[in-house]
Every structure is written in C-alpha cells, then in structure tokens.
Amino acid sequence: MMISGYASNYGVVCNTYIVEVGAFGELVRRGTRPPMWLNHEGPAIGEWVTISDDERGLFVTGRLWDTARAREAIDLYNEGCLTGLSLGPKGAVWKTMRRGIKVISVIDRIDEISLVGEPRDPAALIESFCVGSC
FRET label pair with 57: which of 4, 18, 98, 102, CA 20 to 30 Å apart? Predict the structure, then answer.
C-alpha cells in the first residue's frame, strides 16, 4: 500500500502562513523521515520512504503498514474522507508581513506528516494511493 503527494506547497496561503521556496532544503538534506500518522494522531500507520523538495514543494512517498489503523485510513480514503496530507512544522523561521501572514523561510523539524480529510494547505492533496501491486 503506497501513497504519495505534496505535504506542503511553496507560495500557497495556508490560513496565516506561506512557505517560501527552499524552506525544506536542509531538512531534506539531513534525510529526515517523520512518522506517518492519521489525522495528526499516533500511533504511526506507515513510514515515509522518500521525502524530497522541488520547485513546487515537499513531495513524499510512503508505505502503509498492515495494521488496523492503516486499514482505517484505506477505508477513509475509499469513502472520499481522506484527501490530503498535512505536516506539523516545528522550529520554523519566519518574518511576519501585513495582516499577520507569516512567510516561513526555514523549517528545521517536522514531527509528523499526516493523512487528513482537509489539509490546511489546500494544494497538499494525495496524488496516488495504491493498494495491492503498485
């Protein structure tokens, strides 16, 4: 069971912040692989096997484990209730612009990347979800 998509997109307004191009550079170079959660709640339901950044944002590919919670995620996806990815950046460096919007230039740490129903980043959608031989 494989899943992939953009966990964060550069230049997209996400409530009160925008992630600047390259903000994940150091994090990716260090080989960071945060746990895969469902709706920002543990325990982990799988593992992210590749994490990279490109001109669009942070792209992730992961493998779901054969657990009850992972099967719940598959069911939610099949019902159309699980559409996106969401991450919890920690240790971010930003500057605040007018109207309180933060422009994040560096993200030092991610505690988890979750499969969610409605991502804060409206463009952080699941691009592929493959059950069986992929």
Answer: 98
Asked if 85 contacts 59 with a C-beta cutoff of 8 angstroms, the reply is no
How far apart are the C-alpha atoms of 19 and 37, rounded to whole Å? 22
65: which 2 tokens?
């484990």
What's the mean pLDDT in 47-73? 96
Residue 99: CB partners within 8 Å, gap ≥ 6?
A: none
In 1-134, the DSSP E strands lie at: 2-9, 17-19, 35-38, 41-53, 57-64, 84-96, 102-116, 126-130
In sequence order, what are the residues at sequence separation of 6 or more whose Cβ sits closer than 8 angstroms to the Cβ of residue 33? 47, 48, 49, 51
Q: Which residues, including other chains, have CB under 8 Å from residue 79's CB and lie 6 or more apart?
A: none
Model confidence over 16-56: pLDDT tens digits?
889 999 999 998 999 989 999 999 998 999 999 999 999 99
Total residues belonging to the chain: 134
Which tokens hold the place of 10? Answer: 């550069």
- SS3 state of residue 134: coil
| Type of residue numbered 81 | C
